[in-house]
Amino acid sequence: MGKKMKRKNAGKKGRFNICVIGAGYVGLVVASCFAKLKNKVICVDSNQEKVKLLKQSKIPNFEPGLPAIIRDAVKKKRLSFTTSISEAVKKSDIIFIAVGTPPRKDGEADLSAVENVARTIAQSLDSYKLIVEKSTVPVQTGIEIKKTILRYTSKRNKDFDVASNPEFLREGKAIDDFLYPDRIVIGVETKRAEKILKKLYEPIKAPVLVTDINTAEIIKHASNSFLATKISFINAVARVCEEAGADVRKVAEGIGMDARIGRRFLDAGIGFGGSCFPKDVEAFIGISKKLGYRFNLLEEVKNINISQRRHLVSKIKEELWIIKDKNIAVLGVSFKPDTDDVRESPSIDIINYLLEEGAKVRVSDPKALSKASELLKGAHFCKDPYIAVKNADCLILATEWKEFAELDFRRIKRLMRYPFIADGRNFLDRDKLRRAGFKYIGIGR
Ligand code: NAD
Ligand code: UGA
Fold first, then answer.
1. CATH of range 14-211; options 3.40.190.10, 3.40.50.360, 3.30.420.10, 3.40.50.720
2. CA separation (Å) from 185 to 188, 194, 212, 331, 396?
3. Residues with CB under 6 A from ligand 2
4. Which residues are tagged catalytic?
5. What value does the mean pLDDT take over residues 160-185?
6. How confident is the model at residue 75 (pLDDT cuts 50, 70, 90)?
7. What percent of the chain has a predicted confidence (pLDDT) above 70?
């Protein structure tokens, strides 16, 4: 079905009172899109500062298209914000848990926010509620949520279901991914829960897969781990290409033409980052181990991924010999374009390696400088990429923002002390840059 047709179908009448707990990258999108689909939504966050901003229609994260949807939903009185879970739960039929599940030091998912929310929900139950995990969680978390609610709710209020409804949206494309998904996965224990979720998602035209809760939870971890595996696979192939004098981009095109493989998620580079792939691969390894299986394949996916960051730095060293006192411009610090999210960004690691070696690093990014400045000590931040590249001995392209492809590279060549580009995403036009007199290196070509 074409996008236009799909767009027409999204937006039929919804009829639910919904509460979304967690107003982060996922929660805000889920809350505002359900409101767009004509449900009445209360979005809850324990971060008072965040809720204060949201109440003033100020959006804490950069996500294309999101501010307009939020403003419209608030204006139509379909979306509101609060810090009180119990107030929101009491007014809702369906409760989505979308709080963070960050990695603990041992790699396992930290589920303390999920548990905390489950306890508060338990104390606020006053009629039948459907409690849905949206956060990405290890298999068997649904069982624990149910046990927790039973433990903390009063004897009178045991009328609830727990379900799993994993989210597959990508940052930067979150609105479209939510409204026009490839599939909707619903993990349920009862027909009642299945019926409610199917009804809720009726306006979205996508195949619905109904499973039990454990299976839905594994679908989420396995999806992210598989995509991460694809990326590490092509990065490993890239290393062989470099040794053999082949071009990984053509290899990706060639293998991707096989419909069984597919071209997507085969872009070699400095590896995957973000708050999801690294965390979810780690958590999937962790829960598998707990259940008695050593997921060595995913251990290697992780190793390959991390090695790509060092690999780019060693390629730069091959060219510059000594890093100390070199001026290095890094274009892109978000973990991918169209987001201000810098969590687990490969760019941050690369900048830290360079700083450790004594380089002077200037960083430019269209949206992520403020978040990056909280994490990076010692780098200089430049809004203007032309200032970042001034007198540079090397320009690293770390995030493929379209703004960077549109730069005036003749001007950049004049500004740099040595016109050397290390393209960590195989994003720029190599041949054009070489013709213009740059020394250009990419990944796997
Ligand atoms: P986030 O850190 O951006 O947002 C989480 C929010 O939850 C924060 O605003 C935090 O203040 C709030 N919170 C924490 N504890 C709370 C509590 N006790 N009560 C109320 N609010 C609380 O995280 P995110 O990126 O939105 O991810 C949320 C979950 O969704 C994670 O499990 C993640 O793996 C999953 N997920 C994320 C994405 C993505 O693209 N970011 C996509 C799919 C799934
Ligand atoms: C990813 C998944 O794509 C979503 O389906 C999922 O919902 C989400 O994680 C999640 O669970 O949170 P996201 O992290 O927003 O979404 O971004 P992606 O577009 O998947 O990119 C992840 C990382 O992989 C980025 O650093 C990107 O640069 C890298 N990547 C991606 C590559 O290195 N090569 C590729 O070919 C594709």
1. 3.40.50.720
2. 10, 11, 10, 37, 39
3. 136, 167-171, 224, 227, 231, 265-267, 269, 271-274, 276-277, 335-336
4. 276
5. 97
6. very high
7. 97
Which residue do the tokens 């809760």 mark? 213
Q: Which ligand is nearest to the CA of 45?
A: 1
Residue minimizing CA distance to atom 19 of ligand 1: 46
Burial of 265 (0-12, 13-18, 19+ CB in 10 A): middle
Pocket test for ligand 1, best of 99, 135, 345 (most atoms within 8 A of CB): 99
Measured in Å, residue 277 CA sits from the centre of ligand 2 at 7
Q: Which CATH class is domain 222-300?
A: mainly alpha
Beta carbon of 224 within 6 Å of any ligand 1 atom = no
Both tokens of residue 134? 């949206």
Q: What does the alpha-carbon distance between residue 404 and residue 425 come to, in Å, rounded to a whole number? A: 12
Report residue 4's pLDDT band, with 50, 70 and 90 as the boundaries.
very low
CA distance 141 to 97: 12
Query: Residue ranges per domain, the chain?
Result: 14-211, 222-300, 308-441
Multiple choice CATH, 308-441, 1.20.1250.20, 3.40.50.720, 1.10.150.170, 3.30.565.10: 3.40.50.720
Q: Are 25 and 174 in contact (CB under 8 A)?
A: yes
